[in-house]
Amino acid sequence: MTEEARSTVAHLEDRSLLVLDDDRPFLNRLARAMERRGFVVTEADTVADGLAAVEAHAPAFAVVDMRLGDGNGLDVIQRLKEKRPDARAIILTGYGNIATAVTAVKLGAVDYLAKPADADEVFAALMNDGEAKAAPPENPMSADRVRWEHIQRVYELCDRNVSETARRLNMHRRTLQRILAKRAPR
Q1: What positions does the domain Response regulatory occupy (predicted)?
Q2: Which of 38, 57, 74, 81 is the most exposed place for a label (fewest CB within 10 A)?
Q3: Mean of the pLDDT values across residues 33-43?
Q4: Structural domain boundaries, residue 72
């Protein structure tokens, strides 16, 4: 039996799941929905609780909110992957952009979902083995949104320094400030 096959079998046997989100009603609904799908759920609503749950028993699966009141959910993903490299974790966030998605995947997340995500989407992301080709998006990003995402990525890479970001994008600083002050285009 190959290592990949053993990992798949282990995931089918161990259905432990950590759900980490600071939105308590959403956390409770998602936890109940995942229990109905056969998972043994541990709930946490802070980074500290999430890290403690990982230390106590590193779960096979995790659904982690990106931004929490006491820190960043990526810290929990990183610790989970250190304790259990075969764990399948996904990031949920209402503040989605390409830069954070790339960071999440580099730290070991297998998928990145924008809120509001329903239990079916979460389940599909957790169980996706990566071999099935993703369906094309129903509503792909507009060109304006792609531009905005690129600007946000460069801005994050420049440590949120407006002047440096403007220089690298060959853009006037005031123009960049106006773009950053606006909401993301659809």
Answers
A1: 16-130
A2: 38
A3: 93
A4: 3-127
